[in-house]
Request: fold
Amino acid sequence: MSVTFEFDGIGTHWWCELLDRTSTDERLVAAVKSYVDVFDKSYSRFISSSLVGCLNSGETIKNPPQELYDMLTYAKQLFDDSDGAFNITVGGDLHAKGYGSREQAARIWYEPWSHITLSPEQIGLPSGMTIDLGGFGKGWLIDKLGELFETQGYSHYLINGGGDMLIRSEEPITIQLEDPRDDTQAFGEIQITQGALAGSANTKRSWQYEGKTYHHIIDPLGKKNDVVGTFVTAESALIADSLATIIFLRPELQSTLETDYHATALLIKN
Reply:
C-alpha cells in the first residue's frame, strides 16, 4: 500500500513514494516542489542571483543564512577528511574542460580554505575563485526533504533524487545496484529499512573536449585509480552522497571514512 509522485528539479528526476498511504497529498507535493525550486535558486552555481552565484561574482555576503554557513563548514570538513580530494573549487575547472559555459571557467584552488572568508558574520571568496556545492548538495537537499515529509506527518517514505535516496520504512526495501560498466546489468542488490544510498561513477556524465574524454568527478590533485563506481549506505543522504565522491577519488580512505561517518561503501573497479 503506497502512492508515488514524480517531478524534475535541479537537473534531476525525482521519484517519491509514501509507503503507508493510498492517495497523494497535493499540499505535500506542492511543498516538496517549492522546496527544491528554492534550494536551486539559492545554491546553484548556474544561477547568477543565487547565494553561490553572488559569491562567485565577488560579492561578500554579510550576515549569511545559517544554512549557507553550515554547508560551507561541512564542505571544509570534507576537504580536511579527504586529504584535499573533496574541493568545492573544481567546478570552474569542469567548465574550462568544456562542461557547460566557458564563461564560468576558473582554476582549482588547492588550499581554498586558506583564502575563503567563512564566519557567521560574513562569507566571501578571493578574486578569481568560484565554488560549487554539487558534490554534496543533492544529499543535503534529500535530507531536508525528509524533514519536510516528517513535519507534514509522513514517517514512512522513499525519496529518490536521480538514484540517491533516503528510506524510512518498516520493512526492508530491496535496491538493485546498477553496474556502471554496463547499465543494462545489476551489480548486486542491497536492502535498506532506515537509511540512505548514494553512488558515484565516471560513466554517467562524460564528454569529449579537444580530443580528450572527461567526466564530472575531478580529482583536484590529479591522482588516478581503477575505481569506476562507488555505492555508499549511511544514516543520512548527505553522508552517503559525500562519501560516494570521496571514496571514488580516494579508495585508500574507505576504511577510515566508514568508521568516522558510520557508513558502508562498495567499490567497483575495472
The longest strand covers residues 182-201. The two ends are 40 Å apart (CA to CA). Helices lie at 26-43, 51-56, 66-81, 91-96, 137-151, 237-249, 254-261. Residues 179 and 185 are 6 Å apart (CA to CA).
